[in-house]
From TrEMBL:
Source organism: Symbiodinium microadriaticum
Pfam assignment, any one: ubiquitin
Coiled coil found in the keyword field: yes
Residues in the signal sequence: none
Coiled coil listed as a keyword: yes
Protein name as it appears in the record: Putative E3 ubiquitin-protein ligase HERC2
């Protein structure tokens, strides 16, 4: 017995698709993608906004004739590094902007950037995986922007990871191809024979670590940055997940314990908390510290105290922690009640046909708000220092006037009194940055709110358009 369902895109296009009741949801998705002539990457959602499991049959997914489904294709993704951005649009094309030297200009490879599935960035270069498994690179050649030396090997690429100046790609057969600066892990020839059946790769500033199918780990790159794991190699068994700080790695084993290596100052030495690292579920890293969530929802931290490695001041509050997020030099935990609220927001956004609001706008707005708060704190600190320096300067002038009542305002001694020029410039710059970010966030939030209302109840409504990306580009260029 077969059923017929209507499948909608966010653009409003739709197609009727007929499949057998015992067919898989994955095959239904492929039929819909063919009928709608869209790229092969996406998710199928039912009328309630829930993502359908591709492994289930149509019957198991409780689908019936006449059901209206939504196909989300190539959600907008953004990658950014020093001075440049790259965004994958809904049709699989790419828009770049920012400093051309750092990858902000992709015009030389623009015709090749079709059906892009993933983008990864080094410090000043980008690498994109296409639907056919090939790779396109651009940006600074020395930082991985030139992959010509390994281009013939880059076939059936599944995943790309990046250090500061190099890339590593996992191929479909589990082997690895690297390029970029050799000092930053761009040369894996010393361990190439060991790189078989690779499941996951993680990168620090100058090194890579790969988990193999048997749970062992292979590392390469700069030894001081975690590229040499020989000291803990015997402990690296049944590894499930690896996280990296700037110069160190942390691995979660199958029994929930943790193994660390690399620079001790960057979290590579967890001996002080080793006994506490039991039943670890998740690890997150800041610049030079780590935080681990245990099975009971508590948190253990180690590394540089100034970068989140010391959580003693808030330890009593760290209960029922669900997720940990990092900034450049700090970590933040999402507790259970906040996690539930976030899931409700996500579910409602999906029901309204607005998954892009969750996957693009909300994270960017949250990041922007966090940055504004940090900048405001810095601005207040600089203002306080400026007031203090001005007060000291005035006091010096008064003392000088008392000692030398006939001294003119341009007296040599007066000129020797330090001027707060740097603080004034810094304060002014921070104020300007805050103004720009506030303007951008206000505009973005004003656009986001109407989109939730405008497309409410419309499964085929377009919640996020390519023109929105153009709008953000234009706004950024204005500043």
């Amino acid at each position: 017995m077969s059923i017929s369902v209507d499948v909608h895109l966010l653009s409003g296009e739709r197609a009727a698709v007929e499949v057998e009741a015992d067919a898989s949801v994955e095959s239904l998705k492929h039929c819909a993608q063919s009928a709608l002539a869209v790229p092969s990457r996406g998710r199928l959602l039912n009328s309630s906004g829930e993502v359908l499991d591709g492994a289930q049959t149509v019957t198991e997914a409780d689908l019936r004739s006449g059901d209206v489904l939504t196909l989300h294709v190539n959600q907008v993704q953004i990658q950014a590094r020093k001075g440049a951005f790259a965004a994958i649009l809904g049709d699989g094309s790419v828009v770049t902007w920012g400093n051309a030297t750092f990858g902000g200009d992709s015009s030389a490879v623009q015709e090749q950037l079709r059906d892009v599935q993933q983008i990864q960035a080094s410090y000043t270069a980008f690498a994109a995986i296409l639907g056919d498994g090939s790779v396109v690179t651009w940006g600074h050649a020395d930082y991985g922007g030139d992959s010509s030396a390994v281009q013939e090997q880059l076939r059936d690429v599944q995943l790309i990871q990046a250090s500061f100046e190099a890339f590593a790609a996992i191929l479909g057969d589990g082997s690895v191809v690297t390029w970029g600066s050799a000092h930053f892990g761009g040369d894996s020839s010393a361990v190439q024979e060991q790189l078989r059946d690779v499941q996951q790769i993680q990168a620090s500033y100058k090194a890579f670590a790969a988990i193999l199918g048997d749970g062992s780990v292979v590392t390469w790159g700069h030894a001081d940055y975690g590229g040499d794991s020989s000291a803990v190699q015997e402990q690296l068994r049944d590894v499930q997940l690896i996280q990296a700080s700037f110069e160190a790695f942390a691995a979660i084993l199958g029994d929930g314990s943790v193994v660390t290596w690399g620079s001790a100052h960057f979290g590579g030495d967890s001996s002080a908390v080793q006994e506490q690292l039991r039943d670890v579920q998740q690890i997150q890293a800041s610049y030079n510290a780590f935080a681990a969530i245990l099975g009971d929802g508590s948190v253990v931290t180690w590394g540089d105290a100034r970068s989140g490695g010391d959580s003693s001041a808030v330890q009593e509050q760290l209960r029922d922690v669900q997720q940990i997020r990092d900034s450049f030099e700090a970590v933040a935990a999402i507790l259970g009640d906040a996690q539930e609220q976030w899931q409700l927001i996500e579910k409602q956004a999906l029901r309204l046909g607005c998954s892009a609001v969750h996957h693009f706008r909300v994270p960017q707005l949250a990041f922007g708000i966090r940055m504004i708060r940090n900048l405001e704190q810095e601005l207040e600190r600089f203002k306080a220092e400026l007031v203090l320096l001005k007060a000291r300067r005035q006091a010096q002038r008064q003392r000088l006037a008392t000692r030398c009542p006939n001294a003119r305002g341009d007296d040599t001694q007066a000129k020797m009194i330090p001027k707060p020029t740097l603080l004034i410039l810094t304060t002014t710059a921070l104020s300007l940055i805050l103004t720009v970010m506030n303007n951008l966030l206000n505009t973005a939030s004003q656009q986001s709110a109407p989109s939730l209302v405008e497309h409410s109840g419309s499964p085929g409504g377009e919640a996020f358009r390519d023109s929105d990306v153009d709008f953000f580009v234009e706004r950024l260029l204005q500043y």
